[in-house]
Write a structure and sequence with these properties.
Elements (H helix, E strand, L loop, with lengths): L15 E5 L15 H14 L3 E4 L3 E2 L11 E5 L6 H13 L3 E6 L9 H9 L11 E2 L19 E3 L5 E3 L15 H16 L3 E4 L26 H4 L18 H15 L4 E4 L6 H5 L9 E2 L2 H5 L4 H15 L7 E3 L8 H4 L3 H17 L3 E5 L19 H6 L42 H4 L6 H15 L8 E3 L5 E6 L2 E6 L12 E4 L11 E5 L1
The structure holds alpha-D-glucopyranose and magnesium ion.
The site of alpha-D-glucopyranose (GLC) has 9 residues, from loops.
Length: about 525
């Protein structure tokens, strides 16, 4: 067990982690799709920004039906993104720059092109090959149960011989049967494969998913409700709207993380794993980060909170109370590749940006780790992607807009698409807006009012207190529309109301926007 207060081994406990969506970060070869050499070439941006680590979304062999979250070979790199040598080069360069690297692990399902699923189809009903997945029979005209896919439609697809297989996501992503011992054994090997190559940690996709209630019974739904596996993303912990979820968060899953924790420890005291677990309460989230399980879990309650001092304060208090008994460090996240970018969620335009910067300043002052999503340091908004360019499987299954709008390739420089995302000839896989010239890294660098320089300043200052300010947060009462708290030497005030409020005593270290007449609406400040 590593010393939890040692920044070299327990680096992740107070880290700022930057999420790289591989398709959309940087394209080295001009095919319009981001890739590993592209990431390597842009690592200096992350070092300069001042983050501690990057998390890279899946770059393994995959038919890309869910942009890499459908893995056909967990131990190889898709040619679209490069090669294993490119992965090694990326790790080496990142480590040279003092950046840790977290890779994505997708254990809930494989791609339909994984050799196991191909073998399952070939071998037929009742075979050991089918027993690695969740194949079931159903009476003529019925489905095995009433579950629906997170991406819409039924969670079952029928194969030629009449059996059905379960997929909580796209039909190209069959769910594995984690009660089959071959499955955990395979994933331990995959963990070791990447640990041996030098990765510092894993982001565990759908960590609450792996086990389903063994009976695969129907989900109980209220009178006006339809069954929905997407429940965990639609209702929030904040709303406390509990659902019957036989497909999620089963007790058996914790045994898996106990054994992974040992695999990580064997590789060294400084390897970590962070769970993507959409659970129903802060307490059930905390179960994933007990001392002998995973190290962190994304705190989606923070991302789901409305722009309101009361909502933010509630999430802070509940989160700290939930993780303290298990000794885990809390996490904070505002955006990722699955949700509407927070500037847009907060109303968009100048107000959305001001609020986004203010929420960021609050988050970066809190104990624990903050997870940033590429492009938020530029203040990017959700893009309204034209229907012909949408590729998200959830859009293809439901016709609802989907997640493409937060996955538009990064603008690095220049005055027109592709904004140095890649060689000029290669148009990005999702078109970039024509009005992004002022938002590029190049355009914002050196402009003291820019969002990029704001993030750089915040991260530089954060380094001075992240490991010394302690984990205690004292909430302050400065009025119903003001979020205020003290942590160590720092006082943080966020004005969520409509008009300026007075600033408390203290030296202003950093503000998220201009300070006029006190602390204006939609603005946050760090004071000492
Ligand atoms: C996670 C990923 C999401 C993916 C899904 C299925 O929620 O973040 O992008 O579509 O899992 O793997
Ligand atoms: Mg490319």
């Amino acid at each position: 067990m590593a010393d939890l207060n040692d920044p070299t081994t327990s680096w992740w406990r107070n880290a700022v982690v930057y999420q790289v969506y591989v398709r959309s970060f940087a394209d080295s070869d001009g095919d319009g799709v981001g890739d590993l050499p592209g990431i390597t070439s842009r690592l200096p941006h992350l070092a300069e920004l001042g983050v501690d680590a990057l998390w890279i979304t899946p770059f393994y062999t995959s038919p890309q039906h869910d942009h890499g979250y459908d893995v056909a070979d967990y131990r190889d790199v898709d040619p679209l993104f490069g090669s294993l040598t490119d992965a090694d080069d990326l790790l080496a360069r990142a480590h040279e720059l003092g950046l840790r690297v977290i890779v994505d692990l997708v254990p809930n399902h494989t791609s339909e092109e994984h050799e196991w699923f191909r073998a399952a189809l070939a071998a037929g009903p009742g075979s050991p090959e089918r027993a690695r997945y969740l194949f079931r029979d159903a009476p003529e005209g019925e489905l095995p149960n009433n579950w629906s896919s997170v991406f819409g439609g039924p969670a079952w697809t029928q194969v030629d011989d009449g059996q059905w297989y379960l997929h909580l996501f796209d039909s190209t992503q069959p769910d594995l049967d984690w009660r089959n011992p071959e499955v955990p054994a395979m994933f331990e090997d995959v963990l070791r494969f990447w640990l041996d190559r030098g990765v510092d940690g894993f982001r565990v996709d759908v960590a609450h998913g792996l086990f389903k209630e063994a009976s695969l019974r129907d989900q109980e739904v209220g009178e006006d409700e339809r069954p929905t596996s997407g429940a965990t993303t639609e209702h929030s912990m904040v709303e406390r709207d509990f659902k019957d979820e036989p497909m999620w968060d089963q007790p058996e899953v914790h045994e898996v993380y106990r054994s992974w924790s040992k695999v990580l420890d064997e590789a060294g005291p400084d390897r970590m794993a962070v769970a993507e677990a959409w659970t129903q309460t802060p307490e059930s989230m905390a179960a994933f980060v007990r001392p002998d399980e995973l190290d962190q879990a994304f705190n989606f309650a923070w991302l789901l909170a409305d722009w309101s001092a009361e909502a933010f304060a509630g999430v802070i208090t509940d989160t700290l109370a939930a993780v303290a008994p298990v000794g885990a460090s809390p996490t904070w996240v505002l955006s990722n590749h699955d949700v509407v970018r927070h500037v847009t969620r907060y109303g968009g335009g100048a107000q959305g940006l001001a609020r986004g910067r203010a929420a960021t300043l609050a988050m970066l002052a809190l104990p624990g780790s903050s997870y940033l999503y590429q492009g938020e340091e530029l203040g990017l908004e959700q893009v309204d992607v034209a229907p012909e360019h949408r590729q998200d499987p959830s859009y293809l299954r439901t016709g609802e807009v989907g997640r493409d709008g937060c996955r538009v390739p990064m603008p690095w420089g220049g005055s027109e698409p592709p904004y140095d995302f890649g060689p000029a000839a290669g148009q990005p896989w999702i078109p970039q807006p024509a009005d992004w010239a002022a938002l590029t890294v190049e355009a914002q660098t050196g402009d003291p009012g820019s969002t990029l320089e704001f993030y750089r300043s915040a991260l530089r200052l954060r380094r001075e207190f992240a490991w010394t300010a302690g984990d205690a947060v004292e909430m302050l009462d400065l009025g119903a529309e003001v979020l205020a708290f003290r942590r160590g030497p720092l006082t943080v005030v966020v004005n969520c109301g409509d008009s300026a409020v007075g600033l408390p005593e203290g030296e202003v270290l950093l503000a998220s926007g201009p300070l006029e007449g006190g602390l204006p609406a939609d603005t946050a400040v760090w004071l000492r």
